[in-house]
Amino acid sequence: MFHSHHTATTFARDSTSDSSVFDSFRYQSSTVPMTHKQRFKRVAKPILQFPRIKPARKTRLSKSPKLTAPEFNSPSSEPHISFEKTETLPREFFQIDALDLAPRLLGKFLRRDDVVLQITEVEAYRSNDSASHGRFGITPRTAPLFGPCGHAYVYLCYGLHVMLNVVADKEGAGAGVLIRSCAPVCGLDVIQQRRGQKTDKPILLTGPGKVGQALGLSTEWSNHPLYTPGGLELLDGPEPENILVGPRVGIQYALPEHVEALWRFAIAGSAWISAPRNTLRPPL
Q1: CB 197 within 8 A of CB 99
Q2: Predicted structure pTM score
Q3: For tag attachment on the chain, is the N or C end more exposed, with fewer CB atoms within 10 Å?
């Protein structure tokens, strides 16, 4: 669909954009190493299904608590977890570049009624990105992607898979973050019923279509605000101590520099990551 010479494009921050702790993910090209490598250790503690939940900090954009390896709980003895002190992420949390927002969503919680999932893998889709649905401009389908940040953009892939995205950046940017994989925290029985699989293995939630199905979503959820209590909401959660980065999946139609861009992020050590895993690595 797109043709280009194999020349990487520089993705520089807009001069009006605020600085971010995730500036290190902005590549001059797909081969330029990131700075600030002291933020991430190379050896990750394993992340299992059910993390301990720490109270949310009052300042959402401040540094979050680190995620440590949780104690394993089998799904048959699902722990009683209270989210009473876990705050819904405010709208301003999402009003940043999609490339900054994507890694910040790792470790956060998606809740719909009794089902709670922890986000373990995401992909960023930026403004002027040839892999993004925003490349088509505003259509009835993509209109929510160009709407207010912090809203859901839900679409049907291949007529089968419901895909959940979180709208990022300023209104009109057409940018968002795809939720690729999650780990179950609460409501395992409901998740299994919706997925039609009686398993507690990662296959249950490793893939964007599986996440949408587990949450019982349809395209009618598109444009739903994720920062308001009730319905579908995004809750604060612990920041991962270590992450992995890699190229996005299934975007061979895009320009070479976008195909190769390391805009896929996952929690290091987690089993709840979709294929392919061999393209993910610690940030340099």
Answers
A1: no
A2: 0.74
A3: N
3-state secondary structure the chain: CCCCCCCCCCCCCCCCCCCCCCHHHCCCCCCCCCCCHHHCCCCCCCECCCCCCCCCCCCCCCCCCEECCCCCCCHHHCCCCCCCCCCECCHHHHCCCHHHHHHHHCCCEEEECCEEEEEEEEEEECCCCCCCHHHHCCCCCCHHHHCCCCEEEEEEECCCEEEEEEEECCCCCCEEEEEEEEEEEECHHHHHHHHCCCCCCHHHCECHHHHHHHCCCCHHHCCCECCCCCCEEEECCCEECCEEEECCCCCCCCCHHHHHCCCEEEECCECCCCCCCCCCECCC
Domain parsing of the chain, residue ranges: 23-56+85-267
Residues near 86 by beta carbon (within 8 Å), at least 6 away in sequence? 53, 55, 56, 109, 235, 236, 237
pLDDT, tens digit, 9 for 90 and up, residues 20-77: 333 433 433 333 333 333 333 333 333 333 333 333 333 333 333 343 333 323 343 3
Domain 23-56+85-267 has CATH 3.40.605.10: no
